[in-house]
Amino acid sequence: MNNIVFKKTLITIGCFFLTYFLYSQDTICKSEAKKTLKEFYTIYLKETSYTYDENKINRILNKYCTLKLIKQINNPDIDWDLLIDGQFCEESWIKTLEIATDTSCSNVFYVKFYYYRENKKINKEIKLYVIKENNTYKIDKVLFNHKRK
């Protein structure tokens, strides 16, 4: 009888630690991906808000985005910046920058920021799909919740 109770206790403890370990790994992954996105958008907004140096921008994109997304960004039929969902940006947006996770999908993140135009607050939210490529997190897709006008 004691042997059975001991085995059940051991299995319960093992399951608890396994669950905790897997949850911790997922949390670490999300926090690392969020850190990478914050780093990318800080650099990207700063660089694109001044003079547009195509070589610098390409180096930034190559470091933080997949080739699939870079091809989509460079599509001549798209006349706005997919990564900011607009045609211009300002460095001041960095101060309001937030990265949030999607609770329903571990690879989906929201980049949020706001700015004021003509005394009106403009909220921006960009939904991104992030993957791990060669041990680094990269933006793979910009996911749209709306149709551009």
Write up what this structure looks like.
A hairpin with a 2-residue loop joins strand 2 and strand 3. A 4-stranded antiparallel β-sheet has the order 1-2-3-4. It starts with a helix and ends in a 6-residue tail after the last strand. The protein is globular and about 75 Å long. Residues 15-28 have low confidence and may be disordered. Helix 1 packs antiparallel against helix 2. The chain has helices at 2-49, 54-64, 67-73; strands spanning 98-101, 108-117, 120-133, 136-143. The chain contains 3 helices and 4 strands, in the order αααββββ. By secondary structure, the protein is α+β, with helices and mostly antiparallel strands.
Short structural summary:
The protein contains three helices and four strands. It has helices spanning 2-49, 54-64, 67-73, and strands spanning 98-101, 108-117, 120-133, 136-143.
